[in-house]
Structures are given as C-alpha cells and as structure tokens.
Amino acid sequence: MRVCLDPGHGGSDRANRGPTGYVEADGVLDIALRTRTLLLAAGFEVVMTRDKDVYLSLPARMAIAANQKADLFVSIHTDAFSSPQPHGCTVFCSAYDARSRSLAEAIEQALRQAGRPSRGVKTRLLANGRDYYHVIREAKVPSLLVECAFHTNPAEEALLKTPEFRQLLATAIAKGIQAFAGPQVVADAMIPILLDEKPLPVNGRLFNDVTYAPVRALAEALGLTVVWDAKLRLVRLIRPE
Ligand SMILES: [Zn+2]
After folding, report:
1. Ligand 1 centroid vs 240 CA: distance in angstroms?
2. How far is the CA of 55 from the centre of ligand 1 (A)?
3. Contact predicate 114/176, CB 8 Å
4. At 110, which helix (H) or strand (E)?
5. Contact in structure between 97 and 68 (CB atoms under 8 Å)
6. Does residue 220 have an active-site annotation?
C-alpha cells in the first residue's frame, strides 16, 4: 500500500507559529518525515507532497498524490486558536467516505493511546454541504487531516518543540495507518543472495532500496562464527583462529 504524507504549509507559507517561535511548516514536516521512516520500516510505500521547505498549492498536493497513485492521503498540521486555552488533537475526515472515517478513527485512537488529549474525529462542511478541507474534498482516495496539537497553547507549543514529542506523534500516526491498512507484505521484497553463485539458505529483504540479509546465514556462509548475546541484545561475528 502506498501512503501519501502531506506536511501542511511550507516555503512562503510559514506564518502559522506559536507564541515562542514554533513554526507549523517546519514542525509538521519533521513529524511527516518521522512518520515516513516508520511506515517504510513497516513495509509501506510512501509518497511525500514535500520533503523540504517549499511552497505547494493545495491542487499541486493533490496532483502529486494522484500522479504517484497513492492509496491513502494523510495531511499533517498543527492547530491554532485566537486564545491560548484550546489543546489536544483533532482528526478531520470526509463526511461522505466511510474509509476516510475509519482511517481517521484509527489514527485518533492511536493518538489517545499515546496519551494525547483528543477532541475527536470530526467532519467540517462548506455551506454547500461539501467537505470543507480541499485535501479531503478533492482526494480520490481515503483522505484526512490530522491536527496534532495546538501550537497556540503554550504547553503544547513547548511539547511540539521537542523531537521526542514529534516522534510520539509520528509513531501514533504510523500506528493508526497500520491498524487501518493491516500488515504489509511486499511480494517482491524477498531477495535471493548468491555466494559463489549458490543461494544462501535464507533470502534477504529489500526495504527502501537497502538489502537486509539474515546475519547468521550470511556470516556462516563466509566462514564466520555467529554468537547472539541475549543479555546485551547484540550479535558477535568471530573470525576463524
Ligand atoms: Zn495548518
């Protein structure tokens, strides 16, 4: 499954900020990049609308998702209000797409399980009844917008400035996507590894253009002794005497 992650704002659009300097465009880019790493490790394919600080119109974001044939669209933002009190996450879904709602519910549940106060899964409509958010309204696939926390709330702004909190948010978003999509089995990820033109007894795996090999099979084939240290949780490779 291919997920499009859409960090909001960026480039010339970087006016949304907290009272002590948090910039939404930068914070949500970092959260999205962390989410990408987690999803790739879980076997998802990931498309980013932006992976650096550039301006993109909303139609340009939708075009990237459509051209790259994404199966899901997840827009990542932090929230703002005119007074400092409001706090917590909100996940906005389509009023007209049950899969958008179930994806939103999975992400909202993961955020709550990570200890975040939640304002719930919500829909927001235009006067004509259509979905309010462009990225939800115009998507051809299940799409949602997650407001991770309020950068106008001083306590949440302080949290958003820490990498640990942005990692917690990314972990929850990735978990929600995994809960919605189920385990990913990438059919072409099994990579035979040949030594002297003979395959090792176990295949390697391809993740994100890097081949990972089962260390025991590979090292023993090369004449090394492999010792698993369960206490330190590490592998020792020992050369022959
Ligand atoms: Zn935003």
Report:
1. 58
2. 13
3. no
4. helix 98-113
5. no
6. no
Cα–Cα distance measured from residue 37 to residue 40, given in angstroms and rounded to the nearest whole number: 5
Q: Strand 2-7 vs strand 190-191: parallel, antiparallel, or unpaired?
A: unpaired
Q: If you measure from the C-alpha of residue 128 to the centroid of ligand 1, how many angstroms do you get, rounded to a whole number?
A: 23
Ion ligand 1 neighbours, Cβ < 5 Å = 8, 77
- pLDDT (tens digit per residue) in 13-64: 999 999 999 999 999 999 999 999 999 888 899 999 999 999 999 999 999 9
- The active-site residue, picked from 147, 157, 164, 220, is 147
Q: How confident is the model at residue 112 (pLDDT cuts 50, 70, 90)?
A: very high
Domains of the chain and any CATH numbers: 2-181 (3.40.630.40), 188-238 (no CATH)
Both tokens of 129, joined, read 């009844």
Type of residue numbered 16: N
